[in-house]
Write a structure and sequence with these properties.
Number of helices of chain A: 15
CATH topology of the largest domain in chain A: Rossmann fold
Number of strands of chain A: 8
Distance between the termini of chain A: 51 Å
Strand content of chain A: 5-15%
Number of helices of chain B: 12
Bound molecules: thiamine diphosphate, magnesium ion
Oligomer: heterodimer
Mean pLDDT of chain A: 94
CATH class of the largest domain in chain A: Alpha Beta
Radius of gyration of chain B: 20 Å
CATH class of the largest domain in chain B: Alpha Beta
Largest sheet of chain A: 6 strands, parallel
Number of domains of chain B: 2
Low-confidence stretches of chain A: 1-5
Largest sheet of chain B: 7 strands, mixed
Mean pLDDT of chain B: 97
Low-confidence stretches of chain B: none
CATH architecture of the largest domain in chain A: 3-Layer(aba) Sandwich
CATH architecture of the largest domain in chain B: 3-Layer(aba) Sandwich
Order of helices and strands of chain A: HEHHEHHHEHEEEHHEHEHHHHH
Chain lengths: 382, 329
């Protein structure tokens, strides 16, 4: 992705002529990219890319994410899933970030990071269960210390700092990784968490999936800052941009950041530039506020075809490989969807059974009443 | 210009906002996605086009700032109508409302005031995602110096919202989103406001008083009809302005019927029903023929859509409770 086109206009003030004004500080933001659209290599590839299996794994995972996404939308459209936020076009971020993480790192995902969750080991059926409106989807089999998705935008940044504090206190070398959108960087919690993480040098990686939109509010209407990465600088934390549609760049940037953090060099922020190719959610109609033309232009940046083009150009990927992979992914997603659909609704008592470690005595009567009342279909908003 | 049009509650909110922007140039509308997108529910549809982006402002994603900016602008002679996209995201804003909006008049002995409205869609029953179904009215009703208003029909939404906007003090205006498209009626866009602090009789009766607000009016009115068929006559009151609560019409009704049930979607403990029961105990205890009962949401987190329906107080529960109450006297 052309990083220039995705940053707001320059806002540098003029350099003062006044001798009373002494230069104090200057900061730079860099944007990393190895592979551009159509799979062309634009910079010397990092070490990791010599591992073709790794590249293929990244590619497979992005394809799986996309096939899952399509299925989720289809289920929603046919009344078998709740409101769902598509991750179309942003697959390289979840895949790249989560692939660079260790199992014992802690992920705190925003509501759109199905790709990261999948890579972390949350199953497709669990993802569907959550978006289908069942809390058991957040009781996933993936890393048990990972957070459930965060719906109140940006409210999970401080949790990530808290998880990082726990890691630091324990003296281990794992890292808390939080992913959120461009819009989330306007929330107070974002600055508050970054600031504390900087002061305390917490093992925290903040990833901003900048998809240029927060529902109908464009990146430029969100902040006057030229980059979101520079917001980290204000907290004394390194901030960098990465082409979020280049899976290799996302993976490498995350890997390097995690290594630095593990080595005790404190928190880090990566702004991954991407584009939301779909509607905000299945309840949204993006044509109300953005041009179809803009969207089609960004299809050119598609992270999935970019890595495929690269792999193909390197003779690591064939049409047959592609066909086989698609069939595998579809088979897996379909059978997981079937499994999800077959899961019966929980009994009414489930509302009570996870409120407290032990249900307090005074709530037991209510629980009984609820179970009795719940037998009647005329109850409940009828 | 007076227009009459059939519309739903959402449309009525839109009409009232348009009217307020039209009639008073100090009125401004702000919030996330309220501009070109017209709000995620379309409550502000067309307003930016008509009144310009200086008066209908898309904000960055920052609820505390939205509320705080409304406070600041209100003190300087504007009438901000701020939208919080869902009530589930209003909690950080309580700081601005509790510490500032509702207190500036008191703190400055009237020198500064906050004629602002915070609108938010609230409530469950629409199969919304997590954190999109809460009913936080009691939290706000506990804040002195603040009005809490909840409409339950298109016409009342229109009149109450206009009154809220023109009111010299801060108002939290909670819109029951389950009612956004539930009923349509003729709404006259005549700029006439409805009185705040005035509960509304939705139905007159003699045996039992059913008190409610917001979307639960649907189930309560349905229950009232079923009870009527069984020979039990109910009086239904929509509280409309929860705070400050004018308990006069409620107590007058209870003194007539001798029985009362309060119905709300929010969790039971510390819910606003408790305040109503307390008022009845204060003023009308000796008129009671039976204990006052509540039919409410449970003291649980409102479940995600698959179980949600089992959380919502239903018609059957109201009817059953009414029969129990009748059987007690
Ligand atoms: C605190 C809060 N306010 C509003 C919303 C409603 N909402 C959901 S997503 C969203 C936009 C988020 O934009 P961004 O952070 O860029 O993430 P993206 O949706 O682009 O992935 C909004 C306003 C919310 N979920 N939480
Ligand atoms: Mg975004």
């Amino acid at each position: 992705m052309n990083s220039k086109s995705n940053n707001a206009e320059p806002d540098d003030g003029a350099r003062p002529a006044d001798k009373a004004m002494n230069h104090v500080a200057r900061f730079d933001i860099f944007c990393r990219r190895y592979i551009e659209p159509e799979g062309n290599v634009v910079a010397e590839l990092p070490e990791v890319t010599s591992d073709v299996d790794l590249l293929k794994r990244l590619y497979r995972q992005m394809v799986l994410t996309r096939v899952f996404d399509q299925k989720a939308i289809a289920l929603q459209r046919t009344g078998r899933l709740g409101t769902y936020p598509s991750v179309l076009g942003q697959e390289a971020i979840g895949t790249g970030v989560a692939s660079a993480m260790r199992d014992d790192d802690v992920l705190l995902p925003s509501f759109r990071e199905h790709g990261a969750q999948l890579q972390r080991g949350v199953s497709i059926r669990e993802l569907l269960l959550y978006w289908g409106g069942d809390e058991r989807g957040s009781d996933f089999s993936g890393p048990r210390n990972d957070f459930p998705v965060c719906i109140p935008v940006g409210s999970h940044f401080p949790h990530a700092a808290g998880a990082a504090l726990a890691i630091k206190l324990r003296g281990s070398d794992n890292v808390a990784v939080v992913i959120a959108g461009d819009g989330a960087t306007s929330k107070g919690e974002f600055y508050e968490a970054l600031n504390i993480a900087g002061v305390w040098q917490l093992p925290l990686l903040v990833v901003i999936a900048n998809n240029q939109w927060a529902i109908s509010v464009s990146r430029k209407e969100q902040t006057r800052a030229r980059t979101l990465a520079q917001k980290a600088i204000a907290a004394g934390i390194p901030g960098e941009q990465v082409d979020g549609n280049d899976a290799v760049a996302v993976f490498t940037a995350t890997m390097e950041a995690l290594e630095a953090i593990r080595a005790g060099r404190g928190p880090h922020l990566i702004e991954a530039l991407t584009y939301r190719l779909g509607d905000h959610t299945t309840a949204d109609n993006a044509s109300r506020y953005r041009d179809d033309e803009e969207v089609s232009l960004h299809w050119h940046e598609d992270p999935v075809s970019r890595l495929r083009d690269y792999l193909t150009a390197q003779n690591h990927w064939t049409k047959e490989d592609e066909q086989t992979l698609l069939e595998e992914c579809r088979g897996q997603v379909d059978s997981e969807a079937e499994a999800y659909l077959a899961i019966p609704v929980q009994p009414v008592s489930a509302m009570f059974d996870h409120l407290f470690a032990v249900l307090p005595e005074p709530l037991k009567l209510q629980r009984e009443y609820a179970m009795e009342a719940g037998k009647d279909d005329q109850n409940g908003g009828n | 210009m007076t227009k009459m049009a059939e519309t739903d509650l959402l449309g009525a909110v839109n009409l009232a906002l348009g009217r307020a922007l039209q009639d008073d140039e100090t009125t401004i509308v702000l919030g996330e996605d309220v501009g070109v997108n017209g709000g995620v529910f379309r409550a502000t549809d067309g307003l930016q086009e008509k009144f310009g982006s200086a008066r209908v402002l898309d904000t960055p994603l920052a609820e505390c700032a939205i509320a705080g900016i409304a406070v600041g602008a209100a003190t300087q002679g504007f009438r901000p109508v701020a939208e919080i996209q869902f009530a589930g995201f209003i909690y950080p804003v309580i700081d601005q409302v509790l510490n500032h909006a509702s207190r500036l008049r008191t703190r400055t002995r009237g020198r500064l005031s906050c004629p602002m409205v915070l609108r938010a869609p609230y409530g469950g029953g629409v199969h919304a995602p997590e954190h999109h179904s809460e009913s936080p009215e009691a939290l706000f009703a506990h804040i002195p110096g603040l009005r809490v208003v909840i409409p339950s029909s298109p016409q009342r939404a229109y009149g109450l919202l206009l009154a809220a906007i023109r009111n010299p003090d801060p108002v939290v205006f909670l819109e029951p989103k389950r009612l956004y498209h539930a009923l349509r009626e003729d709404v006259t866009d005549d700029g006439k406001e409805l009185p705040l602090d005035q509960p509304v009789y939705l139905r007159q009766g003699r045996d039992i008083t059913l008190v409610t607000w917001g979307a639960s009016t649907l189930e309560v009115l349905r229950a009232a009809e079923q009870l009527e068929a069984e020979g039990i006559s109910t009086e239904v009151i929509d509280v409309a302005t929860l705070s400050p609560l004018n308990d006069e019409p409620i107590c007058a009704s209870v003194e007539k019927t001798g029985r009362c049930i309060v119905v709300h979607e929010a969790a039971r403990t510390g819910g606003f029903g408790a305040e109503i029961v307390a008022r009845i105990a204060d003023r009308s205890l000796t008129s009671l023929l039976a204990p006052v009962r509540r039919v409410t949401g449970y003291d649980t987190v409102i479940p995600l859509p698959r179980l949600e329906v089992k959380y919502m107080p239903g018609t059957r529960q109201i009817v059953d409770t009414a029969q129990e109450v009748m059987a007690l006297s």
